[in-house]
Sequence to fold (543 residues):
Amino acid sequence: MVFRSRRNEAQAIFEILVRENEAMLMTYLRAAVRNQAVVEDLFQETMLVAWRRLNEYDRSCPFGPWVRGIAAKLIMAHFRKAKSDIMITGCEMLEYLSRQIEHIHERPGDTWEQKIDALTHCIEALPDNHREMIELRYFKHQSALRISEVTKISLEAVRKRLQRARAQLLDCLRRKKVIVEAGT
Amino acid sequence: MTIVPNDSDNTLFDQLVNQWLDTEPVDSEVSDSTTLRPELLDSSQLSRAADVQLLHAMLMGFAENSEDAKQSRMDKLMRSIRADKEKKAGKKGTSTQKPRRYVGPAIRLGTAAMIIIGFTILLTSLPPNKAMATIEQMISAIENAGDRTYSVIVRDQKTGRRERSWNRSAAERNRQERAVLDGATLYLRGRDKYVLYRYTPSGQAVLNGSDGQKNWLIRPRREVLVSDNPQAFRIPMPEDLADLLTLDFTDTLQRIQERYRIKYLGAVPVEQGQDVSWAYLHATLKERRFRGPRVIRIWAHPGTGLLRRIEFADIRLQGNPEPKKLILDLVDQKQLPNDWFTHSAHHPVDVKVDLLSEF
Fold:
């Protein structure tokens, strides 16, 4: 039988918690910050702060909201340095995002991907021209400008289609109760 | 420039939010200082903007879908944590010593080289090799282990509560007299001998077993069925596990090895607060085309590889849409009677036994 030191045990448990919350935290950060390199940095910084403050974490409470609280402070600090990365900031906005994410977290499913699996069905249900825009933008990582060049559609029309596609996806996710209506 | 949207012009507002999402941070189309001040937005605009941003984030994460990116993120974090621990340990180690004024460059270079070599050895010796080695050790342990008794537990994924069938109403019990997995007990010897005790909601035992040669089935008030066919009387597994979990744990572990990305996460107690630590493996499904739960958690004896607990998360049971977690938990290792894996050890001698030649 191997008895590890408490510190090593804490690290092992922490790694499990990080793995279980990685996708959730990345979603939270991506929702608040546009620059992907900054999102990656904030993820590392948030989890490192969480590790250093692990003795302050109450294990009877869920890990997700605690770690999002740390992330929110770091997002605000980043906003003070680089305003262009964040469109709307402020505690109210971050709290709203945190509530939506907590609602998703409570959905059935062991992993984040399973909890938002309904999004696959919503994408499949989009009209062809809107689904194509979503696939190019997100699954092929093309910018709006590049999509415009590839599809020979004006940049304005591409943006409009993306906007409409997102609106349809949001309606679908609300119908499927993945995202809750504001105020409910 | 700070934009304060007109409350009545939500179309323009939605357009602005979407345009922001589709503009690269380096583009000059949207000014670097274009921000929306939350105190000047009404709650409806704030939530609409947040929902679009959340959807954008979900789509980005959904499309990433790369275990390599996640693993790289985790590796980077774990390296930072190890460096942080070493830094703290270094500070503690020198705190009681007199500060050295002169440290030769050669010593510093030597120390740095040692740290780099140490890190390289540490990183190359860690997962996935350790995870695979643990699985191999577990497979070997099955061949050599004595008798093992496992408790089968089904918990609600969300609430963690056990939903035992006998908590149901009498009407439901009358409707459904099928043996259930929750509350079952599994006895194992070697790789191919097993007895599984399951119970119906009214408490009647249904037994499936194998003595390594013959499979058998014992049901309440009915003849005992025996067959030479190894596929006979297979236990109806939940659909998500049908292609993965068999009572031959060697087979199950090999399938997990093939289809899952397995990470060794050190020695961890099975339950929080317990003193004893077990080698902990966290397995995630490699590809969606494989059938099976997305996550499997495994605890094994760090010395012998004996399977202590295995958890299959987020499975659906027949007729129950709520996701469940199926757990097999080692509860005993006592030696069972020699004939325990034969059907005759579990029923009165006067019960009729039907030997099925073709099943």
